[in-house]
Amino acid sequence: MARTALIAGSTGLIGNQLLALLLESSDYDKVIALSRKPLNLNHPKLENVILTVDRLDHLATLKADDIFVV
Q1: What is the pTM of this model?
Q2: What is the pLDDT of residues 9-64, one digit of tens each?
Q3: Could you list the residue range(s) of the whole structural domain that residue 11 is in?
Q4: Helix (H) or strand (E) holding 66
């Protein structure tokens, strides 16, 4: 079954480690990372969503099975 994880706070110390674990995990087929700036990371599972104040409504369109806020 395809599962998606969403993580907010992936640029911090703990969030960065969690992002790496989620990308390595076979439990998730897709990992959505919310950030203010583009991440310096490329991975087939990773979708980096850049959030700005004028794009907060974009959050309502995201779908995930598990959400991590670090």
Answers
A1: 0.90
A2: 999 999 999 999 999 999 999 999 999 999 999 999 999 999 888 878 878 889 99
A3: 1-51
A4: strand 66-69
Beta strands in 21-65 (DSSP E): 30-35, 46-50
**CA 14 and chain centroid, separation:** 13
Evaluate whether residue 35 is within a structural domain.
yes
Sheet harboring 30-35: ordered strands across?
46-50, 30-35, 4-8, 66-69
Position 55 scores a pLDDT of 75
Residue 57 lies in a domain: no
Q: Let me know if residue 67 belongs to a domain.
A: no
- Sign of the CA dihedral with 42 first, then 44, 46, and 48 last: positive
Domains identified in the chain, total number: 1
